[in-house]
């Protein structure tokens, strides 16, 4: 069990990335950015933690518990920020609640969440307040809301362009990047009435299932400050779980919405590509369409995910602003009757076996579904090795050229997980255009095989792990296979909470594990990382997925599942 | 006016394509293929033309006239083959007509069409007959049709995989390629009840707006045997116009459905990408998704285009067989009321000005629309130079690698138009993956600009030329800008007949032409090619287009337009 991740770093050819000389010129900018972040927390929202953060991390401090029990928020604030988005919108529309008081409660809670987890990259309280007040004024004067999301506090992954605000995407070199205009999705949400006040953290390169970067550092897990919140929509996972926003928007090219939702403790949807706009933002993937990045919502309930998608699409009509989108309205799909639903469970993708808490959750889910009359069948993984291999090659088949541009412009030091991801696929080896086309062809073949398998077996949704384990320890997550499969397939997929939490007393390896023959080195490494005592109290989520563009059916089925799990 | 196309061939680096030594081994295979084609015409369907083909070409012989007036088809055959697809399907479903007699009439007409225009690459009468008889048997035994296209004679571009039949796509090297299975679209149509009996001609490389190849040579224009039928779905343009099939299926990556429809004399729809499957076929574009190839119907009426799309999508559910498709049903969209329709006319794309017959047709269309109460506005071309430049680069940014593979495998001689297209963009210069991504990014920007312009100006459809001229002379078509614009934009676009035909006595350059200052060399070349007397009787078509995935609205508006033009 002595394998380390570094053994996985093949010939990465990472020369020309780091440059400590050049980096020195950037350090004052970083310092200034951080100071601004610290100073952006209103004085009255500052809290004192029981001990210093390092100690809390060591102890596995539960931030969610603290938030509810410490009294840092008033009961009225808790009440408002625990209301569903639908109730909030209804009460604001009828003036039972003002946008201002809703905003203030969420902004307060967001600041607490940030002080617990370092989830924010930027907080702009005054602008949020001004916006909320202008919405109240609008409603008062016109007698109608500005749009269906009138007054709703929404958090945004920092990577998304925000007009006239630094947008760095976790790259030091982009600290000087100040877009003129909002990215399309931000603009659509603003048009619908959303209130913005916080932009959230993400890892360097945007390509970790974790959160560390050289600008504002790593985010912490809400349920266990010593664990990772996941990534790359790291701050979204943390802030949404802690109720610092009603709904959050993340992006996902390999698991970046589903990972943080699963690990942090909320739900997160990776929609099919080209429904939610990713236009306007910092990333290494501009024009890369072999494996498409998507944007999508994170929320505490599936209903809120549904509400986001429906309003964003049907009222927002993003395809009128972004010509690359597919103009498909969000269809009203009823929650399926259990007896009419077939769920194919894929317990193990054949690459990396799940850890004990994940195995327990799969068993729990299977039993709950069967008890309710759902038709539960086995879904056998199909060429998951090819899918994982292909998608990893797709990420960097430009020979890491774009990442090199973005990273070497500041010469910033590479974090370990950046080095890891840049070494995957064929590392810095550039592919020819024709080789890239072959990858696309392989990918389309996989899409057809999975589609045919689901149609033939009449499987409505696939249920499987989001990752082979619960929330990883910081900088210790190497396997993307369970999430990136659905990026390769472009299947809508959703991480949902089971309501279970890791328990060291029961989530131990079974007797068979000590004689288990690992199928590959990655599995050996990932399994070695699981030590029951380290993950105490981590939320346990699973992932569901279905065929392309059946997002509505996926969300509807997810509503049934969380109901059967006893969550929401 | 001495510019020749060869001046446009930049550094094409076409070494390694041709190899006369190697090619010698392929010549017997070509001979055998051609003999088989000649022998596949049933004896009783053989016709005698008035004089030899070269003379008919010289004279501008009208094949459509000949077909109706020469008596080669019985009046009953004419009656059947001139019925709408909808009537045919209705009468076959009610057994008023048998699939066998429908098949025989179309097969006869197809054989006449082939002898006039060399439109077929393969004819398989016996299999078609057997299929038609089995459908009649099915209906008799089961009392129901096999599907909504039960008995409909459909022609297929040869490039599309056909189970157990040679599928060469115009490449000599592919004469040994015999797919095991049908391509997806062929399979879907077969599932729905279509009868196949003819596969049609296409140019070498599949990248000409013309038809010549080394396997079966060039196809001729039905209305003027001395002109080109267009391409690359060359045989489809000719056979559909001549009524040798009820509906034809072509493919289009730069104008390959719209060109042959427009030039030959029928209508043709290039749907938005990922609605009709292109999976399974010979082409140089496997895995190329910067500018996506699409498949779509050609027909003599817009109603038949509607019927094809509706049944193919709604009953065929191709997305269950091809995981790369967008599962969007065909929506029932009523024909718009003239007063509620806004048509933006783009008379000139700013690159190559239209020839006199096209100018006349634009004026005719504008007047007809205005007279009916349609809101007609100017639509100004947006960055058409960028669009044309980008799409040409996208075709061969693999450095012509895939074309080189397919062509050099036989060493076949390159036709002039193959050399021309391989020299476009940056010729054989390979792009890096990152450079390819930049092209994609530029393309997405164009999509958004056109989308925004249409939304802002409330333009429902754009009306413009399909090409700056009517049907070109063989091997003399160099400008793709009017069609490839909509491939870059991925806008659904449709060539439709105006009912007008070129007339040398009126379609002469206006007085201003002799002092006209050409905007570029391509325009100079294309204009030099227009000599009124050479194009006598060529059909005059125009092109309509609209925003992505509004195919239904485009087809509905086209129904109105042809009605106003007095065609159907």
UniProtKB/TrEMBL annotation, chains A, B:
InterPro entries: Amidase_dom, AS_sf. Substrate binds at residues 206, 232, 253-256. One of its GO terms (molecular function) is hydrolase activity. SUPFAM superfamilies: Amidase signature (AS) enzymes. It comes from the Eukaryota. Residues 101-554 form the Amidase domain. The active site is at 157 (charge relay system), 232 (charge relay system), 256 (acyl-ester intermediate). Pfam families: Amidase. Keywords: Hydrolase. PANTHER family: AMIDASE C550.07-RELATED, AMIDASE-RELATED-RELATED. Belongs to the amidase family. This is Piso0_000465 protein. It comes from Pichia sorbitophila (strain ATCC MYA-4447 / BCRC 22081 / CBS 7064 / NBRC 10061 / NRRL Y-12695). The lineage of its organism: Eukaryota, Fungi, Dikarya, Ascomycota, Saccharomycotina. The gene is Piso0_000465.
């Amino acid at each position: 069990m002595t394998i380390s991740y570094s053994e996985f770093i093949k010939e990465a050819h990472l020369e020309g990335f780091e440059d400590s000389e050049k980096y020195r010129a950037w350090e004052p900018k970083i310092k200034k950015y951080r100071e601004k972040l610290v100073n952006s927390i209103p004085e009255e929202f500052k809290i004192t933690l029981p001990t210093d953060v390092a100690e809390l991390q060591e102890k596995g401090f539960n931030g969610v518990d603290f938030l509810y029990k410490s009294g840092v928020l008033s009961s009225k604030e808790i009440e408002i920020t625990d209301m569903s988005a639908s109730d909030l919108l209804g009460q604001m529309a009828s003036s039972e609640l003002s946008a201002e008081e809703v905003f203030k409660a969420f902004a307060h809670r967001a600041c607490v969440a940030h002080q617990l987890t370092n989830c924010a990259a930027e907080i702009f309280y005054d602008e949020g307040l001004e916006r909320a007040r202008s919405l109240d004024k609008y409603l008062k004067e016109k007698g109608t809301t500005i749009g269906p999301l009138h007054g709703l506090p929404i958090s945004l992954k920092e990577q998304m362009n925000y007009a006239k605000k630094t947008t760095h995407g976790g790259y030091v070199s982009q600290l000087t990047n100040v877009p003129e205009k909002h990215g399309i999705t931000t603009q659509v949400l603003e048009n619908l009435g959303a209130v913005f006040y916080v932009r959230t953290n993400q890892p360097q390169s945007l390509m970790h299932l974790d959160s560390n970067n050289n600008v504002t550092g790593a985010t912490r897990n809400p349920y266990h400050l010593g664990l990772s919140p996941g990534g790359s929509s790291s701050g979204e996972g943390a802030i949404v779980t802690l109720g610092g926003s009603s709904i959050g928007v993340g992006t996902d090219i390999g698991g970046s919405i589903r990972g943080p939702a699963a690990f942090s403790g909320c739900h997160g949807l990776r929609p099919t590509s080209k429904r939610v706009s990713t236009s306007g933002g910092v990333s290494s993937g501009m024009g890369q369409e072999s494996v498409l990045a998507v944007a999508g919502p994170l929320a505490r309930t599936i209903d809120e995910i549904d509400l986001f998608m429906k309003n964003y699409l049907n009222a927002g009509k993003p395809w009128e602003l972004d010509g690359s989108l597919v103009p498909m309205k969000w269809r009203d799909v009823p929650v399926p009757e259990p007896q009419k639903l077939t769920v194919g469970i894929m317990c193990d993708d054949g690459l990396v076996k799940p850890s004990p808490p994940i195995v327990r959750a799969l068993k729990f889910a299977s039993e709950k579904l069967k008890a309710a009359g759902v038709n539960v069948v086995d879904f056998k993984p199909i060429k998951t090795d090819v899918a994982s291999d292909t998608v990893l090659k797709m990420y960097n088949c430009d020979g890491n050229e774009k990442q090199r541009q973005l990273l070497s412009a500041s010469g910033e030091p590479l974090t370990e997980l950046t080095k890891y991801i840049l070494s995957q696929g064929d590392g810095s080896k550039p592919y020819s255009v024709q080789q890239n086309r072959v990858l696309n062809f392989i990918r389309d073949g996989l899409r057809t095989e999975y589609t045919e398998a689901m149609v033939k077996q009449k499987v409505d949704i696939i249920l499987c792990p989001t990752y082979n384990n619960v929330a990883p320890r910081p900088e210790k997550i190497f396997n993307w296979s369970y999430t990136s499969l659905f990026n390769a397939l472009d299947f809508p997929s959703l991480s949902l909470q089971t309501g279970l939490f890791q328990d060291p007393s029961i989530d131990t390896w079974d007797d068979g594990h000590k004689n288990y023959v690992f199928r590959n080195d990655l599995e050996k490494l990932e399994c070695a990382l699981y030590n029951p005592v380290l993950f105490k109290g981590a939320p346990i989520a699973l992932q569901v997925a279905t065929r392309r563009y059946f997002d509505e059916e996926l969300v509807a089925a997810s509503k049934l599942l969380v109901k059967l799990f006893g969550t929401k």
